[in-house]
Specification:
Length: 104
């Protein structure tokens, strides 16, 4: 009588390889977002210094349209990409508003 051994996800080498790739991509995303926020914080400080408004709706609309096009070209759901960018933009604006209230 042979005994079947049920394989767990942790024992699956193919799945482990996929997960390692996902982990690497997630790490890259975090590093890229950190760099993006470092730059946008500098933008916020500059806007506060020269008394520009925290938000730039025209720029935001351009960026959203651009990201939607890139998403479509990359076969990524453009609705998801817009929601993702909107989340980031809202956080950036919040930082810019804080910079304005503290003088940069």
């Amino acid at each position: 009588m042979t005994q079947e051994v049920q394989q767990t996800a942790g024992d699956d080498a193919v799945l482990a390889g996929f997960r390692k790739s996902i982990d690497n991509i997630d790490a890259a995303l975090v590093h890229m977002l950190a760099e993006r926020f470092r730059i946008t914080q500098a933008v916020g400080a500059y806007k506060a210094k020269v008394t520009l408004p925290p938000a730039d709706p025209a720029r935001e609309a351009e960026q959203i349209a651009r990201l939607r096009r890139l998403a479509e070209e990359s076969e990524l759901d453009p609705e998801f990409s817009e929601k993702f960018l909107r989340f980031i933009i809202d956080e950036v604006i919040r930082h810019h508003e804080q910079a304005q209230s503290t003088g940069g």
